[in-house]
Amino acid sequence: xxxxxxxxxxxxxxxxxxxxxxxxxxxxxxxxxxxxxxxxxxxxxxxxxxxxxxxxxxxxxxxxxxxxxxxxxxxxxxxxxxxxxxxxxxxxxxxxxxxxxxxxxxxxxxxxxxxxxxxxxxxxxxxxxxxxxxxxxxxxxxxxxxxxxxxxxxxxxxxxxxxxxxxxxxxxxxxxxxxxxxxxxxxxxxxxxxxxxxxxxx
Length: 202
Ligand SMILES: [Zn+2]
Hints:
Blueprint: H1 21-30, H2 32-36, H3 39-43, E1 51-55, H4 59-69, E2 85-89, H5 94-98, H6 104-121, E3 125-131, H7 135-141, H8 143-147, H9 149-170, E4 175-183, E5 189-196
Parallel strand pairs: 1-2, 1-3, 3-4
Antiparallel strand pairs: 4-5
């Protein structure tokens, strides 16, 4: 099939020919009626996926986060989520979406992508992973917060709570869980702490 210039190639097999952003928004607004008018899209409906993962761009955290997602994790998911989640990676994770220090466009882009993943992949949960020693937190709230573990954790708690509030307005049916990935004595990112408990993903 041909791919519209505005369509991402990763999702192209899920989209009808001629799909574009405006078409997507029309479908989103029409709901069931929109699906009835787009039988090719209905036939290509993928199985529901489990979650969207919001995480930070920090290179040190990429492998630990992927490893955690790809095996059972107490209080989060009962089995591996490999191949079952989409991912949005931005400096600071929840901090990048919430902190006023960053451009409003960061937040808007995240929420538009979350809505797209709900529509395209029928995801049911948002998993947020913030982490210790985050450079984006330093940019957003300053050196004093960044270097004080108590203030650092409080800032992450506040931002994941703000994110949850916004999610409850935008997507009231979505599950939500938030995590803080801390470091062990050797500086490795191995210490997982639940900040906001949500439905455990089966
Ligand atoms: Zn970070």
